[in-house]
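re: ur msg from earlier - yeah i can do the pyridoxal-5'-phosphate complex, just paste it... oh wait u already did. ok heres what im feeding in:
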Amino acid sequence: MKRKAGQDRAITAKWRPATQAIRGGTARSDFGETSEAIFLTSGYCYDSAEEAAARFRGEAKGMTYSRLQNPTVEMLEERLALLEGAEACRVSASGMAAMSAALMSTLSAGDHLVAGRALFGSCRVLVDSILPRFGVETTTVDGRDTEAFRKALRPNTKAIFLETPANPTLDIVDIRGVCDIAHEAGALVIVDNAFASPVVQRPMDLGADIVAYSATKLMDGQGRVLAGAVMGPAEWMEKTYLAFTRHTGPVLSAFNAWVVLKSLETLDLRVTRACENALKVASFLEARVPRLLYPGLVSHPQHALAMAQMSAGGTILALHLEGGRKQAHGLLDALALIDISNNVGDSRSLMTHPASTTHASVAEAVRAEMGIGEGMLRLSVGLEDPQDLIEDLDQALKAVGL
Ligand SMILES: *Cc1c(COP(=O)(O)O)cnc(C)c1O
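and the outut:
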């Protein structure tokens, strides 16, 4: 495998994102294939016993086992690192594998973690139930209140974990403000950037140390594979993250890595268009439902902050109906085009009722505190013609008396 002459980091890091998304990380076999190859192999062979020994000693270059290295996976990692502006990237089997490995590799028994309270359902379970089982103390705060992060700090606070825009409440966290507070206290900031993607928000430019993704969402963007990614400084990746994942093995398959690699070629086009569609749909819904939250609309309580750290409003919006679960489920059941699905970031528009699906495993009191009511619906806007989406929502709203 080799890169085209001249395509080392010093050059590729200067490419603009649209170029990086298509060419970043590409390495070719001796066949010179134009499109990246899939290496479905678990292991590698050596020319001699001494060659094997030298690779295991780390003295000879080359791969040893696909839990540790794989050519297709490495192309994806390099492309993502370039897009994020990160020193290093490692991909994983799912977004939750990325989040759990980023947190578990960083934290040890006796450490304290502060997290924004509005998190993806499984991230909340990780923070509330799983990490404490291993002796990690955790505190959740209202992420909209930057000072709340400072107040929650303890002498043993090792990291702050946040998601913005948060799922599904669309709370916005001031990334730069929280990073300043964390860094004064010597804590790392880990940002789950799945809802924004690197096209819309670049947390490292705002001070974040680690950025993690569910690549299942906008990066694949066509609802096919699960994947995750973690990015950060090369030294942290080597000494902290890889020290954990080399031996726990949450790796991405080469096939799934290839699917995401090819999807990145259209990431910018897809995310830009989906954000434009979301703004049109949100503007329509705003006049029709009691409460609508979309970071790209002036009516979002944190619109100014959202626009200061995001280049667009994102692809997800939340609506609150007054008729509780009955009206929310009724609206979903009346949809003729938009699918009822808990996924997000697909080219298809998808709608779900978080209280009975994605956040059903979060205790009711916690849901209420997070702002996930029984009348809340989350809509992930895709790439269909926005007028068709508006017409579908219009007839479904009429069906439930709105
Ligand atoms: C989907 C999602 C995850 C989890 O990712 P999986 O790929 O489903 O494991 C984590 N965080 C956010 C914000 C998500 O949307």
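cool cool. The chain has two domains: 2-264, 267-399. ping me if u need the other ligands too
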